[in-house]
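Now for one specimen:
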Amino acid sequence: MGNIVAIVGRPNVGKSTLYNRLVGFRDAITDDFSGVTRDRKYGFCEWNGKRFTVVDTGGFVHGSSDVFEAAIRDQARIAMEEAAVILFMVDTQTGVTDLDEELSKLLRRSKKPVFLVVNKVDNHKRLMEANEFWSLGFESTFFVASISGSGTGELLDAVVEHIENAPEMESEFPKFAIVGRPNVGKSSLTNALLGEERNIVTPVAGTTRDPIHSHYNKFGKEFILIDTAGIRKKTKVEEDLEFYSVMRAIRAVEEADVCLLVLDAEQGIESQDMNIMRLAQKRHKGIVVLVNKWDLIHKDTNTARDYEKAIKAKMAPFDDVPILFISVLEKQRIFQAVELALEVYANRTRRIKTSELNDVMLEVIEQMPPPSVKGRYPKFKYVTQLPTPFPAFAFFVNNPNWVRDTYVQFLENQLRKRYNFSGSPIEIYMRAK
């Protein structure tokens, strides 16, 4: 189960504000109109050494109030299926509403832990008023003010007790996830690779369901393919499909070693693709970008080069990522996609001997020493690669605070120049010697 924490509740109870608190930056637009949350709907939170993904369901509801209520109920149901923990948010200012009652009935049936989060409790009078929410019958009830952050620490302490920080699932084969927005050709790619109609491909966006793990063993290559696929009933509203596919993508990213991000050539890279990519990057997963439907693009000599440039500009600073132009329909270059994914997997698991690392990197530092900070110069003593499942390096230095971010980026670029880490995020830590 991917470590997903979902925030559900009526519009305007403060879901986005809580989300921003947890993810640690003002990322969703918060406004007094219901349903204005846009764009960033999921982000990454780390608390007490546990990592998880926070999903703000508020970003997935658009439309009139009656549509709202139906959509909010649907999301609560999807969250009950998909999330590890559910934060059910209510608001002291309005008190208990009918929709709160209805949602609480639904959520009390959940086998997952549900925390009732009573928001806008920012003074003693409000705290007294907030006691009416005990009537909803949730044992775990937290009183918070998400704007100031008061009470969120206790809430997070309780949440992380239910988060499993299992080490990456050890599997003898690399695990590849095919991710991307609905209708870019993810299932067709899976079927083309496996050579069978694994998932019934239908042209309705969001018809795929359940991550399916398929064992691929052909042409001397072996890996596990995670497809966020299967059939989803068409009766659900569009927005739900979007919400559903995002929940699926997050789970697939959590499980994979390398993510194959499929784009639609005619649409290019959109903000939702970037969100998935940033999530994969934060989770230190390998990334390969596949531009599908390339057969539909009118090409002259530089089309691919210009297209690649544009994508990399959006992905910066992490743009050392292989990009491949494919057509699933014409079966163009889809096996090359597998080779690239295996290459990125090898890059992500690449180990460099400490002695070699010191010879190479200390010389780089000598030739291009770090700039001074307030007249003080960082002195590097030693470099080593850490025993993590992804490339991470510790640079030992007399004072880590004197090393600027730009210099850390420079060190990463130098590592990439000398060793092939294409497609794999790199973490660099400055340690005091």
User: Anything to note?
Assistant: The chain is about 35% helix and 20% strand.
